[in-house]
Design brief:
It contains seven helices and six strands; from the N terminus they run ααβααβααβββαβ. The protein is α+β, with helices and mostly antiparallel strands and about 220 residues long. The chain has a single domain, classed as Pathogenesis-related Protein p14a. The structure holds 2-acetamido-2-deoxy-beta-D-glucopyranose (NAG) (4 copies).
Length: about 220
Amino acid sequence: MATGLGIIFCILFVSSSFALDEKKATNPADELVAIVNTNRTAHKSSSLTNNPGLACIALQYIKAYQGKCDEVGGPDAKKPADSEFAETFAPNCGVEVATLAPITGRVLGCQSKYVKPDKAFADILTMRNRSLSIIRNTTHTEIGAAVTGSDGGGPYFWCLLFSNGKSNSSFVLEGGAAKITRPGCFSGANDECSGAYGRSEHLSVFTIFAQVFVAVCFTIWV
Ligand SMILES: *[C@@H]1O[C@H](CO)[C@@H](O)[C@H](O)[C@H]1NC(C)=O
Ligand SMILES: *[C@@H]1O[C@H](CO)[C@@H](O)[C@H](O)[C@H]1NC(C)=O
Ligand SMILES: *[C@@H]1O[C@H](CO)[C@@H](O)[C@H](O)[C@H]1NC(C)=O
Ligand SMILES: *[C@@H]1O[C@H](CO)[C@@H](O)[C@H](O)[C@H]1NC(C)=O
């Protein structure tokens, strides 16, 4: 009996904490954009427009790596071909190809463990001074951010794309709304997204051994 009650309380507790999590859920990509803008304005650069078309492209950019963290940085670093923006990324998002504007900066990070956006910003994205100078570059006018795990689990990729396009005439979405594709979250679409958290955060006790081997890769391309 006592065990039965204990189990019921346990289930109630677990389900209520899931419910609370759901209410608190925001979008980690939007949080990252807010962090970048706070950091920019603190260093006398302008606040950037959060462009959902550009952000959706950032998520496609991540997906081009097919979960391969080792291709993000280090000796095997790869970078999607520029032609992919018009041929693959924009069509996948419903971004009108004619409205693609120059990419003036990109910052990409990957690690096996999910971290909160502020930690991702501090540890992954600004690990090198060069990425910080890209983040604060005054040429940019717009930003798009994305985060994803592969199939809802790690490794977790974070991507920031910057552009100097005009905010309401670049990366224009057909029908005015981005195609929401899961898994993964991107900024600017006013949607809640916690897909990147996956199950690993709730079941971290069970995955802790896997996470001891935390790999961090990052790369930056102008
Ligand atoms: C800012 O970005 C532009 C475009 O990528 C680049 O040409 C310029 O050198 C950058 N400026 C600084 C100070 O890094
Ligand atoms: C901006 O970010 C850098 C790198 O994480 C950090 O060192 C700096 O303190 C931040 N600036 C502000 C005002 O938060
Ligand atoms: C980054 O810049 C600061 C000051 O500009 C310098 O003290 C620090 O050594 C630099 N770090 C790296 C990794 O280059
Ligand atoms: C773009 O934004 C400007 C200022 O925010 C506005 O005056 C203009 O009408 C907008 N253009 C379109 C096509 O929405």
